[in-house]
Amino acid sequence: MTTTGEPLDISDIPPTPITHLSETEALMADSVSKFANEVILPKVRDMDEAETMDPTVVEQMFEQGLMGIEIPEEFGGAGMNFTAAIVAIEELARVDPSVSVMCDVHNTLVNTAILKYGSEESKRKWLPKLATGTVGSFCLSEPVSGSDAFALATKASKTPNGYKINGSKMWITNSMEAGFFIVFANLDPSKKYKGITAFIVEKDTPGFSIAKKEKKLGIKASSTCVLNFDDVEIPAGNLLGEEGQGYKYAIGLLNEGRIGIAAQMTGLALGAWENAARYCWNDRQQFGTLIGNFQAMQHQLAQAYVEIAAARALVFNAARKKEAGQDFVQDAAMAKLFASQVAGRVAGSAIEWMGGMGFVREGLAEKFWRDSKIGAIYEGTSNIQLTTIGKLLQKEYTR
Ligand SMILES: Cc1cc2nc3c(=O)[nH]c(=O)nc-3n(C[C@H](O)[C@H](O)[C@H](O)COP(=O)(O)OP(=O)(O)OC[C@H]3O[C@@H](n4cnc5c(N)ncnc54)[C@H](O)[C@@H]3O)c2cc1C
Question: Residues of the chain whose pLDDT is less than 50?
Answer without folding.
Answer: 1-2
